[in-house]
């Protein structure tokens, strides 16, 4: 077997199952899970109908490059949404089977294990992070380096503090903006710092933007393509943006997304995917085209999240150190301000006493540079309908009040 498999850690939800093992939740409460970030809003009819209308496509082998119609829809959406010139559909856009598989396979295509300078190649990850980043790094023969989220910088990593010897080994940097689990959005200044470092040290930036369409202010979250265009990277050199329909259009089971950006990188990634078997089924391509071409359902979906967060955040702010995020559908709360419990103790006791599941923040991060930046925080995914989320928030508030401790002087 591949020896790198031994380096993979248990997924956060496996750790959560072990934490809860042997614990019986209070039977007086129905179960509510805020643990898994799986969209629960209804899938739009136009997407389901497009899928049904194109089932004949199952009789055909799909091209890895995807249909011209789908790539055009993606290019037009990117131009509308991020205020950039349309990307070339022949060389700068590639449909993928959900951003998750593309995040993983992109690392396998990008990392050059023979290019070492002082040690193994490095794949830099934000910390906390989406676990695919770490696993992809290990299985490509690289070493993950964790750039801790800095609350003082709106949870952006402080890239200026990273030693040059690390940058010299870095081949790919993952960026998640809006972030999971923090919901934070990088600024133009953050992006320009990263672009300058990429130019100096010649590493690829993989911008994971699957939460870009769930936000709470009138101003849309800044995207990597917009930031690059403003910076003068008209060819998006060394930049790959990844997005998905899962959160935007409530179709996580359809597994549909795209990568876009640097034509040279896309060309080589296409070659990799031709062997990897990454072609999207024709009915899914047709349904995806319908989704990218329609914005009305996205606006409606976003409004549901706005209403939900507007009702639930104030309830939780009374008992937890938590704020409305820039974007995404998570609340990232510190549990230590009002309770004597760690994040794992909080999650276990809440599950036991009120049958509500939240995810301990330490499970979403690694200890790096002396700290685990997820420690003593919890992630709450507000993906269910508003009544269920309100019920969960009220139970959490009751739970914290039972365990409330006096604030430290």
What does the model show?
By secondary structure, the chain is an alpha/beta fold. The chain folds into 2 domains: 3-42 and 297-402, Aspartate Aminotransferase, domain 1, CATH 3.90.1150; 45-294, Type I PLP-dependent aspartate aminotransferase-like (Major domain) (Aspartate Aminotransferase, domain 2). The chain is 40% helix and 14% strand. The chain has helices at 12-20, 45-53, 68-82, 99-110, 131-139, 164-169, 188-201, 224-231, 245-249, 263-276, 282-293, 296-317, 343-354, 386-402, and strands at residues 32-33, 93-96, 122-127, 143-150, 156-157, 170-176, 204-208, 239-244, 257-261, 330-334, 356-357, 359-360, 377-381. Strands 2-9-8-7-6-3-4-5 form an 8-stranded mixed beta sheet, sandwiched between helices. The relative contact order is 0.17.
The rounded distance between the terminal residues' Cα atoms is 55 Å
Q: What is the name of the CATH class of the largest domain?
A: Alpha Beta
Structural class: alpha/beta
| Total domain modules | 2
């Amino acid at each position: 077997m591949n020896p790198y498999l031994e380096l993979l850690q248990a997924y956060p939800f496996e750790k959560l199952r072990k934490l809860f093992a042997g614990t019986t939740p209070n039977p007086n409460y129905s179960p509510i899970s805020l643990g898994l970030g799986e969209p629960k809003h209804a899938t739009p009819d136009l997407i389901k109908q497009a899928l049904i209308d194109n089932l004949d496509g199952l009789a055909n082998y799909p091209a890895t490059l995807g249909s011209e119609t789908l790539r055009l829809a993606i290019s037009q959406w990117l131009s509308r949404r991020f205020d950039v010139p349309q990307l070339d559909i022949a060389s700068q856009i590639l449909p993928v089977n959900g951003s998750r598989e593309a995040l993983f396979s992109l690392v396998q295509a990008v990392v050059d294990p023979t290019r070492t300078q002082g040690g193994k190649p490095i794949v830099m990850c934000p910390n906390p992070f989406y676990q695919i980043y770490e696993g992809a790094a290990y299985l490509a023969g690289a070493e993950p380096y964790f750039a801790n989220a800095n609350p003082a910088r709106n949870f952006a990593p402080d890239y200026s503090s990273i030693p040059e010897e690390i940058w010299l080994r870095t081949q790919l940097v993952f960026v998640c903006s809006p972030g999971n689990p923090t919901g934070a959005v990088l600024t133009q200044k953050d992006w320009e710092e990263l672009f300058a470092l990429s130019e100096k040290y010649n590493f690829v930036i993989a911008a994971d933007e699957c939460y870009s369409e769930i936000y709470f202010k009138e101003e849309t979250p800044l995207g990597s393509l917009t930031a690059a265009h403003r910076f003068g990277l008209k060819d998006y050199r060394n930049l790959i943006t990844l997005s998905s329909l899962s959160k935007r259009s409530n179709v996580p089971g359809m597994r549909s997304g795209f990568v876009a950006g640097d034509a040279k990188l896309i060309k080589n990634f296409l070659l990799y995917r031709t062997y990897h078997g990454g072609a999207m089924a024709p009915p899914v391509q047709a349904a995806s085209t319908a989704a990218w071409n329609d914005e009305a359902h996205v606006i409606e979906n976003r409004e549901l999240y706005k209403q939900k967060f507007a009702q639930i955040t104030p309830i939780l702010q009374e008992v937890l150190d938590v704020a409305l995020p820039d974007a995404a559908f998570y609340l990232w709360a510190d549990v230590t301000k009002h309770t004597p419990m760690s994040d794992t103790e909080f999650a276990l006791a809440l599950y036991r006493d009120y049958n509500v599941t939240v995810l301990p923040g330490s499970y979403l991060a690694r200890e790096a540079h002396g700290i685990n930046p997820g420690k003593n925080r919890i992630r709450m995914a507000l993906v269910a309908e508003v009544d269920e989320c309100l019920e969960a928030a009220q139970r959490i508030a009751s739970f914290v009040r039972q365990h409330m401790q006096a604030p430290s002087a």
